[in-house]
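Schema walk-through. Below, the input block comes first and the output block second. Nothing else is stored per chain. Lengths vary across the set, and this one has 178 residues.
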Amino acid sequence: MATLPAPLSIPPDRSPWVVHFNCNSCNGCDIEFLACLTPLYDVERFGILHIGNPKHADVLVVTGSVNHRNARVLRNVYDQMPSPKVVVALGVCASTGGIFRECYNVLGGVHTVVPVDVYVPGCPPKPEAMIDGIVQAAQILRDKRAHPRDGQAAITPITLVPQPAPAAAAPAQEAVHA
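--- output ---
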């Protein structure tokens, strides 16, 4: 009797995919964030992949202060992401509104529109701080996958179990004609 191979599984701490959204920033944080993707800092060595579609993303990185014009778009991007998801507020403007917080059209930090899990301070933050924040977000995502809240079912790895081989067919009996 042949034994079946061990089931294959995808680990629950699979690599997080990050999508970036710019909410009216001066591009200082954006340039430093893009520096994290270069070979000098190489955030991909931690298994983190930058993508452009929120429907595939696990982590939302937001730069800039939220204003009346982009709050709806930010919420829409957040809602398109599958659960569980993590939000990183990158820079002082995303955290509190920064130097623009007293402006008539600024709502403040990202937390006024979507829940924020990680704050990375600085104007702009250094790439090392950004990498630390994104790695921390990856750990929070791993914890959310393992221990869901709000009545969500735990996200478990997909297990592929091979089907057993079909039983050998019995030899066909010939019909006897009388």
